[in-house]
Design a protein that fits this description.
Helices cover 39% and strands 32% of the residues. It contains four helices and six strands, in the order βααβββββαα. The longest helix has 19 residues. The termini are far apart. The model has no long low-confidence stretch (mean pLDDT 95).
């Protein structure tokens, strides 16, 4: 689960016209792809992230993507990511809830930004709303992928 000791930053959600069972693989695919690759590895290295590469099975506890390790995964309802770099310690939890014929995908962010460098980083990432743009983009990408997926047998 997401560490409760980390201060709350924000939470966003989106309705998806697909079941949690269809939304889950879309969530794992999008989150893995969004941070992986040369760009993600470069940003992770620049920030001094503990996790700088993708390892393990996507969406499984202990696996990593640049900037994050999967701290908790309960298919199809929870994907909790944690990370740390020189300016912050942070967590991002995605929750998938059934909503009639579809799902609601929520993303909760918690983070601490110690010291003057952390405060400056927070101002650059959170204060500019860049974080909001990125999280909402992730949610929209999961929605599009899940709604385009076959509904199953």
């Amino acid at each position: 689960m997401i560490p409760a000791e980390l201060p709350f930053v924000d939470e966003h959600s989106i309705g998806i016209d697909a079941s949690p069972e269809v939304t889950w693989p879309a969530l794992v695919h999008v989150t893995t792809g969004a941070f992986a690759g040369r760009r993600g590895e470069g940003v992770a290295a620049l920030l001094g992230c503990e996790q700088r590469a993708s390892t393990g099975a996507a969406g499984r506890v202990g696996s990593t993507i640049p900037g994050f390790r999967v701290a908790d995964a309960r298919e199809p309802v929870l994907l909790a990511l944690e990370g740390r770099h020189r300016y912050s310690r942070y967590a991002l939890a995605f929750r998938v809830e059934s909503d009639g014929d579809g799902s609601v995908l929520g993303a909760e962010t918690r983070a601490e930004f110690p010291g003057w460098a952390g405060r400056a980083y927070r101002a650059a990432v959170i204060g500019t709303r860049g974080h909001v743009v990125i999280v909402r983009r992730l949610l929209r990408r999961v929605k599009a992928r899940a709604e385009a997926a076959p509904a199953g047998p």
